Amino acid sequence: MFESISRPPLTARPTIPEPPITQIIDIRSDKEDVELREALQQSIHDDSAALPDLLLWDEQGLRYFEDVTYCPSYYLTREEIELLEKYRLQIADRIQPGTMLVELGSGNLRKTKVLLDALEELGRPVDYFALDVSYPELQRTLRPVAEARYQHVRCFGLLGTYDDGRAWLQHPDLQARPKTILYLGSTLGNFQKPDAAEFLAGFMPANCSFLLGLDGCKDPRLVLQAYNDFNGANHRFVKNGLVHANKILGYDAFDLDSWAVSGNWNEDDGAHSQYYYPVIDVSLDGMHIPAGHRFLAVRSHKYDANDQNQLCQRAGLTVLDSWSSDSMYNLLYLVPE
Predict the structure, then answer these.
(1) Helix 59-69 crosses helix 233-249 at what angle (to 10 degrees)?
(2) Over the stretch 47-80, which tens digit does the pLDDT of each residue have?
(3) Residue limits of the Histidine-specific methyltransferase SAM-dependent domain (predicted)?
């Protein structure tokens, strides 16, 4: 299973006459659906009133989020792409020959392809792995990079969760390979800040560096517009989490017509939060839920310079290089201390 990816040739590969079929490696544990169902049932009855944010990322959720990234008000994707395009060769040059470049939550790859094209331009032999939870979406989104017919960049899919990816990277056959974790979109902001550092530190046994996208914008107007767009794309994406919840539970626990989504900015936490709430009194898994009672769907923390320093200190990482936009969107190249 690992032979072809643990020792890649470090010379140019011959031109492939036909578009290649990208290999997708299934690294899922057998317990994921059970664990998500248990976490969901527990969260419904938990005083913390937060549903698992993994509910957002089924196949339909991934497509809805792709719509979000094209919204004019969603500045995160636009600014990240601009940084990647402006500094693509500098960023690519940080990645060693022979590296396993593993992207957590790869999405539609339009950002990533900028970096892969730069690696190809530099003649930098790497193996790129797109990690995501949906097999159909991996098939769809990997097609453009497969058709690029790279000679130096090999592309694979990894089907699984972040935890699956972290465990897979620690396989003995992969220990000798240099590894860079690509974690874009400021998705790390969905963790509570202490948990974010712990999450990054969890990759240390695999001896990884990181290319991390982090949003540092704390302008309430811009943030609220980004997550509460006029056309409702972001709210549609979040509400799909309840559709996924019904599938996981095996029955319509959430009457979608009775639930809505709201978002707000918390200045003290430096975070935007999105919530599910019933518009009328409802019954949920035998519990009475009054109208307006909120369940956290997802929280997006913003990282200014001080937050970034604290993150690195807690995770045992050092900023080797960084690139920032005028609105404080950041790309950080991090290495272990």
Answers:
(1) 170
(2) 678 999 999 999 999 999 999 999 999 999 999 9
(3) 37-333
Residue 35 CA neighbour count, 13 Å, CB half? 8
Q: Output the pTM of the full model.
A: 0.89
Judge residue 235's burial from the number of C-beta atoms within 10 Å of its C-beta, 0-12 exposed, 13-18 middle, 19 or more buried. buried
Amino acid at 178: P
DSSP letters for 8-73? --SSPPPPPSSPPPPEEEE---TTHHHHHHHHHHHHHT-TT-B--GGGGGSHHHHHHHHHHHTSTT
For residue 319, give both structure tokens. 């900023």
**Contacts for 173 with CB less than 8 Å, ≥ 6 apart:** 2, 3, 6
CB atoms within 10 A of CB 263: 19
Q: Per-residue pLDDT tens for 16-27?
A: 344 455 799 999
Which structure tokens are listed for 251?
Answer: 């029955």
284 has a pLDDT exceeding 60: yes
